[in-house]
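Recall from the previous lesson that a structure prediction takes nothing but the amino acid sequence as input. Here we apply that procedure to AP-1 complex subunit gamma from Propithecus coquereli. The sequence below is the only information supplied.
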Amino acid sequence: MNGFGNKKCEYLYLMSFHIQRMPAPIRLRELIRTIRTARTQAEEREMIQKECAAIRSSFREEDNTYRCRNVAKLLYMHMLGYPAHFGQLECLKLIASQKFTDKRIGYLGAMLLLDERQDVHLLMTNCIKNDLNHSTQFVQGLALCTLGCMGSSEMCRDLAGEVEKLLKTSNSYLRKKAALCAVHVIRKVPELMEMFLPATKNLLNEKNHGVLHTSVVLLTEMCERSPDMLAHFRKLVPQLVRILKNLIMSGYSPEHDVSGISDPFLQVRILRLLRILGRNDDDSSEAMNDILAQVATNTETSKNVGNAILYETVLTIMDIKSESGLRVLAINILGRFLLNNDKNIRYVALTSLLKTVQTDHNAVQRHRSTIVDCLKDLDVSIKRRAMELSFALVNGNNIRGMMKELLYFLDSCEPEFKADFCLNFLITTVIIANTCFHCYVFLGVTAGSYVRDDAVPNLIQLITNSVEMHAYTVQRLYKAILGDYSQQPLVQVAAWCIGEYGDLLVSGQCEEEEPIQVTEDEVLDILESVLISNMSTSVTRGYALTAIMKLSTRFTCTVNRIKKVVSIYGSSIDVELQQRAVEYNALFKKYDHMRSALLERMPVMEKVTTNGPTEIVQTNGETEPAPLETKPPPSGPQPTSQANDLLDLLGGNDITPVIPTAPTSKPASAGGELLDLLGDINLTGAPATAPTPAPVPQISQPSFLLDGLSSQPLFNDIASGIPSITAYSKNGLKIEFTFERSNTNPSVTVITIQASNSTELDMTDFVFQAAVPKTFQLQLLSPSSSIVPAFNTGTITQVIKVLNPQKQQLRMRIKLTYNHKGSAMQDLAEVNNFPPQSWQ
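The prediction returns the following tokens.
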């Protein structure tokens, strides 16, 4: 008995020691309460670290009793932003448990702590497969949720069969979860789409709204990803129309009613699916016209729920081939949205009207006064959208009234609006007519310091072409800069106009307003004060000096004074100004007989586009093509120098850099992106360890860059014999190359790229870059846009010039970057299948 008693005492001692060493962990609710008592961030971190240490110790001891509680606390700390990766394996152990409470926490932890980038997630594939075949529907639901949330492509391939079986089950609880899981499987592995096609036949016959909702989501995903599926499911349009009609006409149902509307979530999903099915299809569009009219007229607009349905209805009407009356009804709904007190609804209405203004211009014009009133809104987002839409509504009939309202807006708007305003103002004035020229000059006076750099030459061209307005313009600009040189773009335009039309200013021939009396000396005083002003930039001083030189042929009494001013700046420390002065002095001394001819008034300028794209401009509802403006490429040796500098950074001799012209997006990072594009590639095929530079003949770089300035036709008809190629086709993005040969330089091949998008969403921030071997020279012109429209409804065009003096086979590496479905996409590709006619 004594031996038995000693063993019992020893056992009790060990147990008491164990209990003292491993106390029971606190509950989750108690942990939350403790953390909330922390007064500082440091105190909270200390609590978290202490609890994490206790949880780690428990995990090391393989304590199965409190594993579920510890993982739950770990997930809470993860949601607070603290690291919890050490609990990943414990989640897998909970998933393998037979207890439902353990599985629930384990699957939740897997969804929060694991993703497909970590190989650990593959360890639970077998557990999920077993749970998908479990006898309890709630366990099956947990497995479906986890697979649909974080399943990788490998897991989806392995478990797609089980998901498809559950999609056919009669249990509505499992069917709706299986439908959502199938959506995730299709996104990860699109080729498995056909596996779920038989199971979708009876999904729309389900009475349960949850199953109907998830079924519509599944059908939408399949239609968006496959044109074949889209054609297959178009026959379901009458059935979808019937379901939508039942929702509208049904009475009050407490389990589906939201603010008096029956299941608005399902209605919105059906409308989105109808929009996809009816796009570019006459029969489907006709079948849904009546129900869309019913939804638009019968939906209550006093609550946000009804506004959401109406907004989806409007988008569907505008996207399908609907009747004209239905489109007017949709735009009127957006017009009512503009009167709503909710800022979000007004913003949505303005954005939608901006998208439809080109196709339904006259219908949008009816709401012009409401749109103009939005310019006075306090919200900057609404104000910006209203400004863009107001410019889109300007046409030849309303230009005076609209410009008056817009100029009032310019006078009171924030500085950040003025630059965009000036750009839109310029484009609109040039496109519509010059009848608003008075307003434009006023714009220059009001917002001269906010205009973009390209506004100065554009305004000068506009002034030159408005012959009847020269006297008014020069007088208006002369008065605008009297004593105020702070607005440098305005001073530059004024100096140019005074130099060109100074004789009109002195003669006082203005008929538009009361002429002013100005002498020749007063005009020169203004220009000389511009030259010596501390606010004048080097560019502005160049304008002023050139204007003074031009006045030597316009004025008669001050030629000697002009000669003296010009000679003074022959020793200026500004090299550009000094060069101009020296050349003008030479003109006075050696070529005085040619001076009047060289400095005569500029003729009317014609803007010539060389192989540039054209955009469709909407004027009063009528469409006419207008060439896009392209900047002339820079001349002189500067591009070559920049190219060599960039080549030094690349560390190789077989890559020639791109010479960009007028970049349209991300100019600051263009060099870095080019380095990313080229990397360590060797496009010539030479060994990477010891590249051998190919001999490059001496080529006149400026003549290549300035090909576009030639007055001859730029391209010959050889292009008709050069077949086009598909350079890239992936993820719905397709890049095609078409070819032309330069008429001025046979060694130049002009490649026009056309980027199209077959997916259901636009691709934004699209940037195309290219690199060629060192024996070539490459020049990228500006793209027509940065957005590739969805469903092949439009293309981006961009011109590439390639100089190939040695007639070598052309090879190119391209880099594509864009945003799609909220994700930044990037891809590299090599193009080696250029047709021989393009380079021989």
